[in-house]
Write a structure and sequence with these properties.
Number of helices: 18
Largest sheet: 7 strands, mixed
Structural class: alpha/beta
Strand content: 15-25%
Radius of gyration: 22 Å
Shape: globular
Strand order of the largest sheet: 7-6-14-15-16-13-17
Number of strands: 18
Helix content: 25-40%
Length: 444
Amino acid sequence: MKVAVVGAGITGLAAGYEAAKAGAEVVVYEAAERAGGRLLTTELAGQPVDEGADAFLARVPWATELCQELGLGAELVSPAQRAAFVYSRGALRALPQPNVLGVPLDFDALAASGIVSSDGVDRARQEPDLAGSPLAGDESVGELVRRRLGDELADQLVDPLIGGINASSIDDLSVRAAVPQLAEAASQGPSLVQELRRLAASSTADPTAPVFYTLPDGLGRLTDELSERLGDRLRLSSPVADLGVLDADQVIVTLPADTARALVAPVSAAAADLLGTIDYASVVLVTLAFNAGDVNHPMAGSGFLVPAVEGRTITACSWASSKWAHVGSPDTVVMRVSAGRYGDDRALALSDEALLDAVGADLAETMALDAQPHTVRISRWKRSLPQFRPGHLELVADLEQSLSYDAPWLQVTGAWARGLGIPACIHQGRLAAQASVADGAVAR
């Protein structure tokens, strides 16, 4: 059987790899001159440094399993530093431990962190005794956290973590789609904190196990390896404008939702309309290399987050050469600074010079850094992070149902569907390929 995959980001590459492994005749079409999408590794200060995501979650298996299949498992490394900070109330403050995506499990540790005021701590301490019913339906992360733990903790601690991951506000994010861990806990009982504590206590996971993995040559190595496995089945600089021209029994579209919409519309107007409701955020990643002697701030950690309520341009700063043993050198400090979130395109609109001035001002304010970098790289990722609004999973289910009626030979998936992390994208791509092979007898 013949399978066509449209799009060669990590989802499309994983789909093509899986379909080929199952014995299908596969062609993967990519409009750009390279594969990999937003996974991109280029040289900075004489070494490979990622321009997009620089790690993937270790606690879900799909990316780790794929690396092992590709012979890359022995190369995986975890961060050299685990401590992380939040810029709050005029200083960098360590995240209170333990926490689950910013929800503190120890209120004394929260108080000691100084991230929220004493009033904010007192409000959070009320959570285990607050009346309330289990989570019903879908709501925003912000609604859940504000109701249970108060506005200050939501703004200063949970929003920088969860909102930062999604380049969004927790008030706009579906708790079920964006943070199923919190949804699971909130569904079990009225106290979010008590349920998270219970889940943590019952977990058999090794608390010292790595949280993240990466490849020392950058995550572009993963997409390069998949591209090599596909060989001449991967066709670069090959845009697809009409699914009807593809010589295939089954088609898998792994493009961003807005791009996929145009391809899907002729075969399923209902699915196309649903794709059109999914919005995106734009972000900028500024990578800076400094002479080590010019950086006086102690970087004993992986970096820091900046809450939206602080009003800064930057949303996070990764101390890459502290976070990863393979980045930087005794003479070079490397930082990756993020800016931009949904509804805030200020950073994207700035010129390179103005953006560097704004980033420099924020680094001076947050970590008293007045040094000038000797190497700079600016990566602008327009409309790169899909936004999971409340009701998102129901929207995806409706979309898939429409396709099953209108075009059973077509699978449409990607970061916008059920998870934007690298493991989720790999999983979604491989599942789509498995479904396509299983449904291979369906006539177009």
